[in-house]
UniProtKB/TrEMBL annotation:
<dbReference type="InterPro" id="IPR027054">
    <property type="entry name" value="ALG2"/>
</dbReference>
<feature type="domain" description="Glycosyltransferase subfamily 4-like N-terminal">
    <location>
        <begin position="13"/>
        <end position="173"/>
    </location>
</feature>
<keyword id="KW-0472">Membrane</keyword>
<keyword id="KW-0328">Glycosyltransferase</keyword>
<feature type="transmembrane region" description="Helical">
    <location>
        <begin position="97"/>
        <end position="114"/>
    </location>
</feature>
<feature type="domain" description="Glycosyl transferase family 1">
    <location>
        <begin position="206"/>
        <end position="380"/>
    </location>
</feature>
<dbReference type="Pfam" id="PF13439">
    <property type="entry name" value="Glyco_transf_4"/>
</dbReference>
<comment type="similarity">
    <text>Belongs to the glycosyltransferase group 1 family.</text>
</comment>
<keyword id="KW-0256">Endoplasmic reticulum</keyword>
<protein>
    <recommendedName>
        <fullName>Alpha-1,3/1,6-mannosyltransferase ALG2</fullName>
        <ecNumber>2.4.1.132</ecNumber>
        <ecNumber>2.4.1.257</ecNumber>
    </recommendedName>
</protein>
<dbReference type="GO" id="GO:0102704">
    <property type="term" value="F:GDP-Man:Man(2)GlcNAc(2)-PP-Dol alpha-1,6-mannosyltransferase activity"/>
</dbReference>
<comment type="pathway">
    <text>Protein modification; protein glycosylation.</text>
</comment>
<dbReference type="GO" id="GO:0005789">
    <property type="term" value="C:endoplasmic reticulum membrane"/>
</dbReference>
<keyword id="KW-0812">Transmembrane</keyword>
<dbReference type="Pfam" id="PF00534">
    <property type="entry name" value="Glycos_transf_1"/>
</dbReference>
<dbReference type="InterPro" id="IPR028098">
    <property type="entry name" value="Glyco_trans_4-like_N"/>
</dbReference>
<comment type="function">
    <text>Mannosylates Man(2)GlcNAc(2)-dolichol diphosphate and Man(1)GlcNAc(2)-dolichol diphosphate to form Man(3)GlcNAc(2)-dolichol diphosphate.</text>
</comment>
Amino acid sequence: MVRVTFLHPDLGIGGAERLIVDAALALKKSAHDVNIVTTHYDPERCFVETKNGTLPVIVVGNWLPRHIFGKFYALCAYIRMIYAAFYIFFIDKHPDIVVCDLVSICIPILKLFIRHTIFYCHHPDQLLTLPGGRLKSIYRLPLNYLEEITTGQADKIFVNSYYTAEVFKNTFKRLSVQPEILYPSIHTNFFDSIDIPSLDITLGNKKLPEDSIILLSINRYERKKNLSLAIDSLFALSNFLTEDEFNRTYLIMIGGYDKRVNENVEHYEELIKLADELKISDKIIFLRSPSDHDKISLLKHCTLLIYTPPNEHFGIVPLEAMYLRKPVIAHDSGGPKETIINNTTGYLIPELSAKAFAEKISVLIKDKLLRDRFGDAGRDRVIRTFSFEAFMDQLNNTVIKLIE
């Protein structure tokens, strides 16, 4: 048995957090002693495995600021993670291995007293920051340098896709290390264990009929997720469907929402305003930070999934939809190119065009046999290529080899 601590900056309900939770579950299932240390945790906005006691969660440094007058988010994140790294030294049972992600500044601190470190690179942090002026460029310069140098100090580096591996190579030019691909997976036993009731969704005071055509979009309320494309595609659908088909079609948008994050609050309101301007607000349901049960229920009952981000690093949601036999329509870029097989498990759209998305959506709406065929192929692909067992074995073998 190996003692493993996962160190993550903010244990919410995003894709990065889902991977950390699944990795912790995988190592626990492999008979290792596992816990999670984080700098922020909200029991009302978390995955169920962290809430029901399956995975012990330790919160440290939450009192430290996340920003300074709305600025310096990255610097504050570095300080919080350094604090959390030092805290691990005082845990009664020192971990043999620490797995960290997103913020690499903690790695040299951890190596002072921890035998081995693993870093999971979802995407270089410096590429996620919004562009700014000259002062921001100067501010980011030392942070970007530190990110590259400290990332290279990990004993093992994973990335989530071949796409991210190429971005890693092009970004961290000083590093000669070749990261290993560890595809995220989904905890399929959890999906299988949830009892899914009949459709019970309301829009205002109106309950959606059983024969509703439900388009589902799942992503955080962030502008880079291009969520407006889903709304624009719904609007464009009226040109491809019969009047009856369009009247029965609804879009449900669900995603992570943190009231502490200004962009989440602002973008949520922007999307509502867009729906009003297009006069289709009566066909859209917005949900914020749904429970795992609600998300899986909606995936089970939807007609198809619309996945709108361009150049997504990996994207766990398409796998979740495919496992539940739902076709996926996504942009032909980034991680979805490695998960979705065009014309087999869904459609990859070359252009970020509402018309192009709407055209393929209409094809699937009109052809149930095609939806079923795509759905069966999607589930088979997840089981064969992205199984939780393969994810667990690869991670467990890495832990054992490091200790040996």
